Amino acid sequence: LPISPLFPAVTGLSMDSAADGWAVGYVADYHTGINRSLALHWNGTSWQQVTTSPGFSFNGVASFSPTDATAVGSHQTSRFTFTSVAFHWNGSSWAQAAALPAPHGVPASQLNGPYSLSAPSATDMWSAGGYYTSTGTVKNLVWHWNGTRWTAVSTSLTTPSGGVLTAVAAASPASAWAVGFTNTSGAYGSDQAPVSVRWTGTSWT
């Protein structure tokens, strides 16, 4: 039997009510190297797939109402070019809302993620990921939305290449956790260990 080159993955889920919510992810095409988004909307009765612009790829989502949702992921403009971005749903379509910033002095091309989204409110959203350093390690960071703009907040955690923060959960602007994994036997090693960092309102430790 032929093997399908398409690999679908659902990576994020958020419900604002029993009649409205989103499951998001992406479909990777191993033949072309191009990802496309997977956006599924729950209307209280069934899941409906929503078409987005080519190159969108979702990793996390926060649903606030039928006309207001935010997602994070990437916009792929060529086979090897990805931009870390946030998307917005206005009730009729998904559109790119903003490119997620890189820390000062770090090229946007070195960003890794974002991989999740947690939103206590529409003016307090957190996403986790990292960026590759010149030595091949990943310096983990977290992005924060304050209702006006996204900022990149560095953490104290550095992991070998392949390890990264993959999930975040925020309770308030002064309390959040992010978790992920690190490779304990070198880059892309087979031995992994869980890691976590905590936001105290002033820093990630």
Keywords:
205 residues, mainly beta, five-stranded antiparallel β-sheet, four-stranded antiparallel β-sheet, 16 strands, 0% helix, globular
Write the layout of secondary structure elements.
Layout: E1 6-17, E2 20-29, E3 35-42, E4 47-49, E5 56-65, E6 68-78, E7 81-89, E8 94-99, E9 111-112, E10 118-121, E11 124-132, E12 138-145, E13 150-159, E14 164-172, E15 175-183, E16 192-199
Distance between the termini: 50 Å
The total strand number stands at 16
Largest sheet: 5 strands, antiparallel
Percent of residues in beta strands: over 45%
Low-confidence stretches: none
Roughly how many Å is the radius of gyration?
Answer: 17 Å
**Residues in helices, as a percent range:** under 10%
| Element pattern in H and E | EEEEEEEEEEEEEEEE
Helix count? 0
- Rounded mean pLDDT score: 89
Class by SSE composition: mainly beta
Shape: globular
Summarize the entry for a quick read.
This protein is mainly β and 205 residues long.
Explain this structure:
Helices cover 0% and strands 62% of the residues. The protein is mainly β and 205 residues long. Strands 9, 10, 11, 12 and 13 form a five-stranded antiparallel sheet that branches. The chain has a four-stranded antiparallel sheet with strand order 1-2-3-4, with no helix packed on it. The protein has a four-stranded antiparallel sheet with strand order 5-6-7-8, with no helix packed on it. Strand 14 and strand 15 (175-183) form a beta hairpin. It is globular and about 45 Å long.
